[in-house]
Structure formats: structure tokens, C-alpha cells
Automatic annotation (TrEMBL):
Pfam families: TetR_N. This is DNA-binding transcriptional regulator, AcrR family. It comes from the Bacteria. InterPro entries: Homeodomain-like_sf (IPR009057), HTH_TetR (IPR001647). SUPFAM superfamilies: Homeodomain-like (SSF46689). Keywords: DNA-binding. Coiled coil: none annotated. The lineage of its organism: Bacteria, Bacillati, Bacillota, Bacilli, Lactobacillales. Residues 6-66 form the HTH tetR-type domain. GO terms for molecular function: DNA binding. Residues 29-48 bind DNA.
């Protein structure tokens, strides 16, 4: 297969994402990535010295996109619709959340500290947790959510629901819908 001479950063990140989802962190190599991009490994090494720096930059890029989308969201004043918007946004980036979690664990195992540029991961978590917290607390004040339920537990359940993996053949959208339904309405027939 002839090699292309140029690729964009977006091309690089897109193929990095696809490859990480397909083969996982441990099997991810510049050789595989170069094949997917139809370039030489040397072309990738011009930009990145190793896969950890590339993955860190890719995750930072995706988290910035998520924060931009979060900032541009026109949040509904209807509580249930607001919850649906929040849940949809979280699940639209569930792959990034899962890859970030795996990457962070791998860096801890390697005893390396590769921080996402500009502490974007920390900012993302703080802003999302803060938004979910204010949403939950305001819903508890108005009686939309039961006051006796611990807010911190609900916040963590919502934010980390993207980590719930199923072995079934559910699509990401179906999985998100069922988890949202369980969180919002429970699992028992009334």
C-alpha cells in the first residue's frame, strides 16, 4: 500500500481513538497506527516520542471538546429534560472517559506521571461534578429528587455510569438509555 506523506492532527487523534477502542492500550503501537494512517512510523515519531504522550494529548484534545460542548449547551429549565441533556452529553464521550480511566491506571502501574496538558482532566471533573451537584441539590430543594438520598452518591452514580459495561449486544445509545431510565425511574414496576 503506498504511503501518504501528510496527515492532520485530527487524523492522528481519530485513528488513535479507533485503534485504542479496537486493540486497547497494551496492544496499541505506532506501527499499527502508521498502518492505519498509511504513513511511516517515522512520520508519527516526528510528532510524538512515545505512545503515552500521544494518548495524553489525544485525551486532552477530546476533553477540551467536551468542555466546549458543555459550555455551549443550552440547558433546559425542565428538570427531567436537563437530566436527559446531561446524561446524553456524558455518554457521547463515554469512550473518552473509559480510555482516560485505563490510561490513568496504566500510568500508575508504570509509576509515571503524565498529566493531561493544562490539567484539563481535573478541570473537566470539577466542572461536571459541580454541575451535577448543583442540579441534584436544586432538584432536592424542589422535591424533584428525594431529599433523603445522599447527593454525593447520586453525583458519583451519574458521573461514573459511563463506566458500567455490559456483556450484551447493547449499543452505546441503548446502554445509556437503560442506565438513565434506571437512575431516573428505578428498576421496579410500580
Amino acid at each position: 500500500m503506498p504511503r501518504k506523506k501528510k496527515f492532520t492532527v485530527e487524523d492522528l487523534y481519530h485513528q488513535t481513538h479507533l485503534l485504542l477502542m479496537k486493540v486497547g492500550y497494551d496492544q496499541f503501537t505506532f506501527s499499527l497506527l502508521a498502518d492505519e494512517l498509511s504513513v511511516s512510523r517515522a512520520a508519527i515519531y516526528k510528532y510524538y516520542s512515545n505512545k503515552d504522550v500521544l494518548i495524553s494529548d489525544y485525551l486532552t484534545f477530546e476533553m477540551k471538546k467536551l468542555l466546549e460542548e458543555f459550555d455551549q449547551m443550552e440547558w433546559s429549565s425542565d428538570r427531567e429534560e436537563h437530566f436527559n441533556q446531561l446524561f446524553e452529553l456524558i455518554f457521547n464521550y463515554s469512550d473518552v472517559h473509559q480510555l482516560s480511566n485505563v490510561f490513568t491506571q496504566k500510568m500508575k502501574m508504570k509509576h509515571e506521571k503524565i498529566q493531561f496538558k493544562e490539567n484539563i482532566s481535573k478541570e473537566l471533573h470539577e466542572r461536571f461534578f459541580g454541575h451535577i451537584q448543583s442540579f441534584i441539590l436544586s432538584c432536592q430543594e424542589t422535591g424533584f429528587i428525594k431529599k433523603e438520598l445522599p447527593a454525593n452518591l447520586l453525583i458519583n452514580m451519574i458521573f461514573h455510569s459511563v463506566m458500567i459495561n455490559t456483556s450484551s449486544d447493547l449499543t452505546q445509545k441503548e446502554r445509556a438509555g437503560y442506565i438513565r431510565e434506571i437512575l431516573a425511574h428505578g428498576m421496579f414496576q410500580k
